[in-house]
Amino acid sequence: MTTGGPSADVRARRPSTLAEGWRAYRNERGGVFGLAVLVLVVLLALSAPLLTDPAGLDVTRVEDAPLQPPGAGHWLGTDESGRSVLLLTWWGARVSLLVGSCAAALSMVIGTLVGVTAAHFGGWTDTVLLRLTDFFLVLPALVLAIALSTVLSRGVFTIVLAIGVTSWPQTARLVRAQTLTVQTRPYVERARALGGGHRHVLGRHVLPAVLPLVFATTTLTVASAIIAESTLSFLGLGDPSRTSWGAMLKSAMDTGAVTAGAWWYLLPPGLGIAVVVLAFTLCGRALETVLNPRLRGEGR
Amino acid sequence: MTDTLEHGRPHRSGTVPRTLGFVARKLGGAAVSLALVAVLGFFLFRVLPGDPARTMTRSAPVSAEQLAQLRHRFGLDQPLYVQFRDFLVNLARGDLGTSYTYNRPVTELIGERLGPTVLLVGTATVLAVLLGLWLGTRAAWRHGTATDRWFTSVGLTLWSVPTFWLGLLLLMAFGVGVGPLPGLFPVAGMSSPDVPPGVLPRVLDVGHHMVLPCVTLVAVIHAQFMMVMRSSLLEEMGAEYLTTARAKGLRDDAVRRGHAVPNALLPTVTLVFLHLGTVVAGAITVETVFSWPGLGLLTYEALRVPDLPLLQGTFVVLASSVIVMNTLAELLYRVLDPRVRA
């Protein structure tokens, strides 16, 4: 294992490593199930504009009775202004998935940067960054996200920022620990001895070794980011111009659908969140097991 | 992580100075965190909005004169460094400013709402920890069996459910009632107006109001404790001292209770405290759903306006209490675990 940069034979080995990983992943029943569900949900979310008419989302253009129970006209009933709950749920998936993945990606970038920097440069940098990470790790993330999305202007970008900025500490801890381990390996030492600078060592040796595990954690972060998005929308901090699952549940509560017993309005968005979050969780745990059998699904 | 490294050093020069050093380091770290909370609180609610007066009045049309008055009332017309200095001085005195909507001191408002939150969150956390540890132990001990799979699936599913949604469902099913089923529990608040006098009826009334919010919180929170306990115990179960214990002729039950569980409990304890932040998050949404008159509902009321001084107050109080609890846990962990101490 003393290869320098990615030489020809390393490049040749990469596809087979991927195939090996996929074979191991296939053995994780939960992971395969989660992945299947995710593919289905993503396809549905992407096809919403093709298969449905967004005019049905416009309050001013629907003429059906409000809070209708499920029936022939509307399979999942209608909301407080007569819109189809099925249509709302379908379109709501787009916001939840978009915000969840973007926020998780942002959290991954921040976490990786902080973790790698702390571990690689050590000394004071490490002390300060570790202190900061521990601070944000303990700080109740939702409270901070609420604060951020209250003072900034409403919108999808604000929500992504609020969740991304508050959910990176776990990734940073993990990346720091992994980087510390990787750096002691002989091939990294060799690269450094041969005069490899920070950029070379980090870009060619440390990051490629750390990233797979980061990817697994990020899959889990998407799950918690989707929950966070729905919670913020439920508290009325979401983008008012878009339908999301959390916003649907907020209007269900505000307009008395709960006291009216309108279960058809309450169940679909909640089940949507639960199914997507569970799917991401299952995928993330399966990835962790594949990449690091010792973890045994310790994440979260 | 650095602690374990330092304590792994071969030369051991007395336990007392090292313990003192550890305590000092933890307390120092907590002090830095609390200072960061204060700075962050100021930055979030005074600097980031640009013009806090405009943010607070964004839902209602106001004249330039009213805005100027508002700025003067909250000291927003001062330079930022003066505002920051005043904020710190007042914070040290326990003064969190005046609420914009209630026109009363924020400290007073928070003080009124603290009791209900501590009651609800405290009860729910204790129940969730007990339930989670018990289920986690059983799942790990029967690793790979149907029981294990069943517990894990239920736990993961509950963990994937947004707390507020579960609350809404329970509210509809057991508070309002569905179909022929009548509502069994109150739908909002902490007490009824028509309670007969006396201590016992009042306690029972509050308990009755607490059932649904408490069940919601326990259902969601216990899952993570269960998963942590399960994996922590699974790690212990491969240990050699368990084989020794079995070889001594101890029954399975005694091995589990006397040897495996106490050791697996320690990492779980720290994680329980690390997850206090999520408990606080759950409290905010659950109190909103059930109109429980605590800090969570106060936060929700504040963010709707937004009442920035009040929101700043709840932010500082919630964040600092989580930090304080965590530090206590880390100190306690050291007392509990002789391996870390030695």
Automatic annotation (TrEMBL), chain B:
Q: Is the keyword S-adenosyl-L-methionine in the record?
A: no
The entry's keywords? Cell membrane, Membrane, Transmembrane, Transmembrane helix, Transport
How is this protein positioned relative to the membrane?
Multi-pass membrane protein
Entry's CDD domains?
Answer: TM_PBP2 (cd06261)
Which is a Gene Ontology cellular component entry for this protein? plasma membrane
Might you name a Gene Ontology BP term for this protein? Answer: transmembrane transport
Give TM regions.
27-48, 114-135, 156-176, 210-228, 264-290, 310-333
Q: Does this UniProt record's set of keywords contain Ligase?
A: no
Q: Where in the cell is it found?
A: Cell membrane
**A Pfam entry, by short name:** BPD_transp_1_N
Q: Where does the ABC transmembrane type-1 domain start and stop, copy by copy?
A: 114-329
Query: What family does the database annotate?
Result: Belongs to the binding-protein-dependent transport system permease family.
The protein in question is named ABC transporter permease
Q: Which organism is it from?
A: Actinopolyspora mortivallis
